[in-house]
Design goal:
With about 180 residues, the protein is α+β, with helices and mostly antiparallel strands. It has one domain: Gcn5-related N-acetyltransferase (GNAT) (Aminopeptidase). A four-stranded antiparallel β-sheet has the order 1-2-3-4, sandwiched between helices. A three-stranded antiparallel β-sheet has the order 5-7-6, with helices on one face. The longest helix is centred in the N-terminal third of the chain and has 17 residues.
């Protein structure tokens, strides 16, 4: 079954993309159990196990509905799960947008993995002509994620409230 916008099998010099799957659930839970990973994003649910299950189910639902989804990121040198990145169809202020989303395990912060993964996702979106522009939805205080968006070539394109969070929309347009 082909799934639109999914990056399974994509590789960068240091990373390998794979689908969210049951075998990786325990490794993914380390992200939800670490308070540092959600200090910027306000959520109604605070139980780590419930958060992890919701995230996992949402990715499977996205895959099934051709709405993209996060892909697990493994460091190729040791097959360590370092986070996730993906192309996600999102509704923002009444517009359908294609987002580059990314989140990393704290142990992977500051190593350039987010920029490497997001750049690869951007390049696939352009090659496959998925959209004429791409966005990233970033909480206004999350400076590290804003820097990643800028490294990918995005510029701040406005702000809004998204899922009860004040966010900036970063955008990049396809070259013509």
């Amino acid at each position: 079954m082909a799934m639109k916008f999914v990056l399974k099998g994509l590789e960068t010099p240091r990373l390998r993309f794979d689908l969210v799957n049951p075998d990786a659930f325990h490794a993914c839970m380390a992200f939800f159990e670490d308070d540092r990973t959600h200090r910027y994003w306000k959520r109604s649910e605070t139980n780590p196990l419930a958060l992890g299950k919701q995230w996992y189910e949402r990715q499977l639902q996205r895959y099934a509905l051709d709405l993209g989804g996060m892909n697990l990121l493994y460091e190729k040198s040791g097959e360590q799960l370092v986070g996730w990145c993906g192309l996600l169809v999102q509704e923002v202020d009444g517009r359908t947008e294609l987002e580059i989303g990314y989140s990393l395990m704290p142990s992977a912060w500051g190593k350039g993995f987010a920029s490497e993964a997001a750049t690869a996702a951007r390049d696939v979106a352009w090659k496959e002509q998925y959209a004429t522009s791409l966005i990233s939805i970033i909480q206004v205080n999350n400076l590290p994620s804003q820097k990643v968006a800028m490294r990918v070539g995005m510029q701040r394109d406005g702000n809004t409230t998204y899922q009860d969070n004040e966010v900036y929309i970063y955008r990049i347009h396809a070259a013509r």
